[in-house]
């Protein structure tokens, strides 16, 4: 493996700026890495070497001409395949969009191109981002580079596994209930769900519009901060886009300090139900924070007990509405049944063939929750619980600057363990879902290795618009762990066999 693929994005940016390497050389190194290992890991649904190398060549020319470029110009990146791209198919992991070529780039993609970051390819995901393991991708699951028999998380398992297997230094994910943070937890990477509205969702194929948020995937906190600074900002194409800037995340990550910070341990997200080794790594991290001068306090958020139930009413309801546009008429798959092909029969046949089991399950549940006579009892009640969760967060943040919990109850499970039990799969999101319901930012960083040699992680949450606090505390704890271990978490990752 090229040593370039092992380096962080910030290190690579420095090498590019000094002229020690070219973007073409760097991009090719990652493409070579993908050619060598992705047959095993299956991080990508599409790899675009021609477009990536063309973008890298253009950046090298501009740099050689003395043009002032973005700090990450020339650093390649992977993009989750639910973001529209004009030069690559966008499938959202579904057969109903197989081969679809969008006519416009998502705002985030436009920003990456404007910054001069070559796009390596589109990463795998659970179909329409519905899942926690990528086992519901219509094109087969991604694998966890730490153990190829285990899941890399979901829905963004492709992005997390690409970064964890050194196929990309950075990636873009989307987080509706933990789809960035949970994959980061199980693959030893860093994942951020920014404040709702901090990053434009224009061009993101919607799952649940009031919950979805795009964010960075990286191997360290500084790299994630650099990426968020690229993709954040107001977008008039997105009516939920925040009008104001949240400041520099890079500065926050570079000025990490927890002395005097009040860190609130969420009572409802610790203890019973969490794997002993996950709890042990969590306690060790709290001790490090305490020794660094942070004040550890306990906070109670009683409404969190109902978060999963509320989420799995709100999400299916919004998903059933968002997915109604896949009707065989405007774009995507069209299946013509035998007999008289009325629009109703064509639509039914297309959706039957194009949607997978998890998507159908959630559409049915969501349609029922929104139906006449059930709306107030289900969707309406879930929205009331959402308000209670937001109030719990407000009360907790009066006592603490940031909140903390394990990112998930247990380390990565083996393929097939939970695919037949949707409720068990849904419980993976118990710690991540509340942040989406409240619209607040969250970060997951690795905090050690469990007894099964799989990564564990810790989650920090901050008030809305206070994303910088996450980078501050996350970077500080990351440095404490690196001092303790003598190296970055990803240095512990086992090496994959490479194809010749």
From TrEMBL:
GO cellular component, one term: mitochondrion
Broad EC category: ligase
Statement: the UniProt record of this protein carries the keyword Nucleotide-binding: yes
UniProt-listed InterPro entries: Amidase (IPR000120), Amidase_CS (IPR020556), Amidase_dom (IPR023631), AS_sf (IPR036928), GatA (IPR004412)
Keywords: ATP-binding, Ligase, Nucleotide-binding, Protein biosynthesis
An example Gene Ontology biological process: translation
Gene Ontology molecular function terms on file: ATP binding; glutaminyl-tRNA synthase (glutamine-hydrolyzing) activity
PROSITE patterns the UniProt entry points to: AMIDASES
UniProt keyword Protein transport present: no
Entry EC no(s): 6.3.5.7
Residues of the Amidase domain: 25-470
Pfam families xref list: Amidase (PF01425)
Recorded catalytic activity of this chain's protein: L-glutamyl-tRNA(Gln) + L-glutamine + ATP + H2O = L-glutaminyl-tRNA(Gln) + L-glutamate + ADP + phosphate + H(+)
Entry-linked NCBIfam families: gatA
Family statement: Belongs to the amidase family. GatA subfamily.
Protein name stated in the entry: glutaminyl-tRNA synthase (glutamine-hydrolyzing)
Native species: freshwater metagenome
Lineage: unclassified sequences, metagenomes, ecological metagenomes
């Amino acid at each position: 493996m090229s040593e370039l693929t092992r380096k962080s994005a910030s290190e690579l940016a420095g090498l590019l700026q000094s002229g020690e390497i070219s973007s073409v050389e760097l991009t090719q190194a990652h493409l070579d890495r993908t050619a060598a290992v992705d047959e095993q890991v299956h991080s990508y649904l599409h790899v675009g070497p021609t477009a990536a190398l063309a973008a890298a060549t253009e950046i090298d020319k501009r740099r050689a001409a003395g043009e002032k470029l973005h700090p990450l110009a020339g650093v390649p990146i992977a993009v989750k395949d639910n973001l529209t791209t004009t030069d690559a198919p966008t499938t959202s992991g579904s057969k109903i969009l197989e081969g679809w070529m969008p006519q416009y780039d998502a705002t985030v993609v436009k920003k990456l191109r404007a910054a001069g970051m070559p796009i390596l390819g589109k990463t795998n995901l659970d179909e329409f981002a519905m899942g926690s393991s990528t086992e519901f991708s219509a094109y087969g699951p991604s694998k966890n580079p730490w153990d190829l028999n285990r899941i890399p998380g979901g829905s963004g398992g492709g992005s997390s596994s690409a970064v964890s297997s050194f196929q990309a230094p950075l990636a873009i994910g989307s987080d509706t209930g933990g789809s960035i943070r949970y994959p980061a937890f199980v693959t030893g990477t860093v994942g951020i769900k920014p404040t709702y509205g901090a990053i434009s969702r224009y061009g993101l194929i919607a799952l649940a519009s009031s919950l979805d948020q795009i964010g960075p995937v990286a191997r360290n906190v500084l790299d994630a901060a650099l990426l968020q600074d690229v993709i954040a900002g107001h977008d008039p194409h997105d009516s939920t886009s925040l009008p104001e800037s949240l400041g520099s995340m890079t500065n926050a990550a570079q000025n990490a300090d927890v002395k005097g910070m009040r860190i609130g341990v969420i009572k409802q997200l610790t203890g019973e139900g969490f794997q002993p080794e996950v709890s042990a790594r969590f306690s060790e991290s709290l001790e490090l924070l305490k020794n660094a001068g942070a004040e550890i306090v306990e906070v109670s958020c009683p409404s969190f007990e109902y978060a999963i139930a509320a989420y799995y009413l709100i999400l299916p309801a919004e998903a059933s509405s968002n997915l109604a546009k896949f009707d065989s008429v405007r774009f995507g798959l069209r299946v013509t049944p035998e007999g008289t092909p009325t629009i109703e029969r064509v639509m039914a046949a297309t959706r039957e063939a194009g949607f997978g089991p998890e998507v159908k399950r959630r559409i049915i549940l969501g349609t029922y929750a929104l139906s006449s006579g059930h709306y107030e009892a289900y969707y309406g009640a879930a929205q009331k619980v959402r308000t209670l969760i937001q109030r719990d967060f407000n009360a907790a943040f009066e006592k603490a600057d940031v909140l903390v919990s394990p990112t998930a109850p247990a380390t990565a499970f083996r393929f097939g363990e939970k695919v037949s039990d949707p409720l068990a799969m849904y419980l993976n999101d118990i710690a991540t879902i509340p942040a989406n319901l409240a619209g607040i930012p969250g970060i997951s960083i690795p905090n050690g290795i469990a007894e099964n040699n799989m990564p564990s992680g810790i989650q920090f949450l901050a008030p809305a618009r206070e994303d910088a606090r996450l980078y501050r505390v996350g970077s500080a704890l990351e440095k404490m762990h690196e001092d303790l271990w003598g190296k970055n978490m990803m240095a512990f990752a086992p090496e994959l066999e490479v194809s010749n």
